[in-house]
Every structure is written in C-alpha cells, then in structure tokens.
Design a protein that fits this description.
Length: about 375
C-alpha cells in the first residue's frame, strides 16, 4: 500500500489552532493525525510539507522505517517542530494500518487493558483563555466553576492557580493561589482530585515552599513546578516535597525521558502524543517508565485527534494514571469528528472502530479558519 499524497488542515480550535495531517494511499484508505503545538503553526505546516516528497511512494505499513527516516531529518531542522510534524504523520500511519487490518490501533499494540479511561478536565477555571486570569476570576468564581465540573461527572480537574511572576512568587500572588486552591477544595470536598499546574515558573526554593503550602489541600499532583531543562534541580524538588511531581510535556522522545526516570525526578510523566513522536514512541516511553514504577498521564495538545490518539494509547499501557481532557471543547470536537467522543461520569470510552475509529469532517473544518495568535504563551506573565 503506497502513500500517494499528504494534506494539511488548519483550523481554529479551543484556545489555539489545530493542525491535522491526512495521508492518502493507492488503495483508497486515508489516515489522519494531529500535529498541534498551540503556537508556531506556520513552521509546523512547513515541516509537514517538507516531509511530503519522502513520503510519497513509501509503503504505509512500514511505520518504524518511515519514523526513523524522518526522525533523522530533525538533525538541523529543530527537534520540536520536526517531531510535531512527525507525530501527526505517525498517527496517520497507524490509522491506515488499523483500517487496512480492520482493527483499532490498540489491538496492534498488545490489545486493550480497559474499556474506558478516567479523565480530568482542563480549561474550565477562567473566563477566557485556558490559563489567563482576569480581575473577575476570583477564588470564589473558580470554586463555582469547579462545582460545575463536578456536576458534569468529573472526579479530577486541573488548573494553574498562579497568575503573574517569575521564579520567585510575591506574597500577594502566593495568597491568591493558596486562596484559590482552598476555595476549590472547600467547594468540591475531599473526594475530588485537584491537579495543580505551575507551567515551570518557579526556582527550586519557591517550588519547595509552594508545595509545602499546598500540601494541606491534598493535590493529586504538582505539575512542572520548575522548568524542565535541569533534571537534577527537578529531582531535588521531588526529594524535598511530599507531593508527586508530574512533568514531561516539554520533553520529547525516549532519550529525553531517560535521565528524568533514572534520576527519579518525577512520579508522573506527561509525554504528548503530538510532540514526542507519536503513538508508538509514547508506548516505548511508557514501557521505560513502568520499569521505574512511574505513572503516565499523557499530555494533550487540546485537539480532537490528539485526544482520540491518546485514547488508543491509553487503552494498552499498564501504568496509565489519568488522561488530560479539554471538556469545554467537547462540542467542537464532536463537530469535527465523524464518530463523536463518548464522555460519561468522568470517563471517555475507548473508540472501537478500525484505526483511530473516527475521521475529520473537512466541511466543518472549512467553517473555522485559523486564528491569528500571539507568539508567546499568555500564562507565563512577567519574568520578574
């Protein structure tokens, strides 16, 4: 089965644009993947187009050969950009193989361990963008929205309670964050898991200090308290606190995750299926983590195919902890997907159809042109 074409679909999504890639074959089977990175769309699309000449004429079943051939082309191109493109292509290849064999992707990866996946809600806490606070976003308003999530069946939810600032948090910002977490905990009770996002904003001292202050509210995990660049520093934080650190959305292939695992710098890893190389690469990373008794919570680049591809992986890894899910975007997801996602009581059903079990509705995508986005993330604030 030969690849005959590659097409890119670019559309506005939740708080960012979504980039889908579709591969076509000479047997009429098409496969879809997602290469969303939330920023830098133009260079990702260019990377996808640059891989097109190599892909045309290749045997679509030879996933490892194609992956390794394209991965070697990241030598000068820039690893993250190339890997985002490669991840979408790799997902599409698995979609083709599953359809050709008449089975879901998870059946090609060892079979499923579960019928549904526990998910946590993201993008629920604030008025506008996923982690951008406004004056009206008070601890009380966030607590009210948390109660709304519980009414929708969620037993876990994540948000970034920290507003502006860099490595050292001010007393006023610290007070706001603690009051927000306290208000949410009081609103939802002790049985709901609260996942605290930091977006890598602190230094080691501040990260340890904040963890100690958050500990009475029993967070499920403490995500990326410091930047991921210094694994030794992350390990120091993990050794110094009683909360499990989750990190990995800014790490990529198995080679990036190796030192994190060897130094026991986190209890939960968060590789992204759209950034780290695709479905099989995440399966390999999860297997490495399993040997260290580290759990996996796949990061989600917030798009519909990213979510579906993650579910295919989630079905078959023993050390899955929970899956990130942007519940506020579910309606848009199901407009785009030809077979909708099934959410109920804090869980997503594993798709059962061949390949991904769904496709993208190109007519719907055309109705939502991509947004003009700022080049920097809104949640980082001022460094000082």
């Amino acid at each position: 089965m030969k690849i005959t074409d590659l097409r890119v679909f670019h559309t506005s999504g939740g708080h960012a644009n979504w980039i889908f890639v579709k591969l076509y074959t000479d047997e009429g089977i098409t496969g879809v993947g997602e290469s969303t990175m939330e920023r830098h769309d133009a260079v990702i699309i260019q990377a996808l187009e640059s891989f097109k000449d190599f892909l045309i004429g290749q045997d679509a079943h030879q996933i490892e050969y194609i992956w390794n051939s394209l991965y070697k082309q990241t030598f000068w191109y820039g690893q993250l950009i190339s890997l985002a493109a490669l991840s979408g292509i790799e997902q599409a290849l698995w979609d083709i193989k599953g359809q050709a064999l008449g089975v879901p992707i998870y059946e090609l990866l060892g079979g499923r361990l579960r019928n549904e996946v526990r998910v946590y809600s993201n993008a629920w806490a604030f008025q506008e963008v996923v982690t951008e606070t406004r004056p009206e976003d008070t601890p009380e308003s966030i607590a009210n929205r948390a109660q709304d999530m519980v009414s929708q069946g969620f037993t876990a939810m994540k948000w970034d309670p920290f507003r502006n600032g860099g490595q050292v948090i001010s007393k006023s910002e610290e007070k706001y964050a603690i009051n927000s977490v306290m208000a949410v905990r009081e609103a939802v009770g002790p049985d709901i898991d609260l996942l605290i996002e930091c977006h890598g904003r602190f230094n080691v001292f501040s990260a340890i200090r904040m963890a100690q202050k958050l500990e009475p509210f029993d967070p499920f995990f403490y995500e990326e308290p410091i930047p991921p660049d210094n694994i030794d520093a992350m390990a120091e934080v993990q050794r110094s606190i009683n909360l499990p650190i989750a990190t990995g959305e800014r790490l990529y292939t198995r080679w990036d995750f190796r030192p994190l695992l060897e130094k026991q710098a986190a209890r939960v890893i968060q590789p992204d299926i759209c950034h780290a190389g695709g479905i099989l690469e995440l399966k390999k990373i999860a297997a490495m983590a399993e040997a260290y008794y580290v759990s996996v919570q796949p990061h989600n680049s917030n798009g519909p195919i990213s979510t579906v591809a993650s579910l295919q992986l989630d079905a078959c890894i023993p050390n899955l902890l929970i899956q990130e899910f942007f519940y506020p975007y579910l309606e848009r997801y199901n407009q785009i997907l030809t077979v909708p996602l099934e959410y109920q009581d804090g869980h997503l059903k594993i798709p059962r159809g061949p390949g991904m079990g769904t496709d993208i509705n190109e007519n719907v995508i055309e109705q939502y042109p991509p947004m003009d986005l700022p080049h920097t993330a809104t949640w980082m604030g001022s460094y000082w």
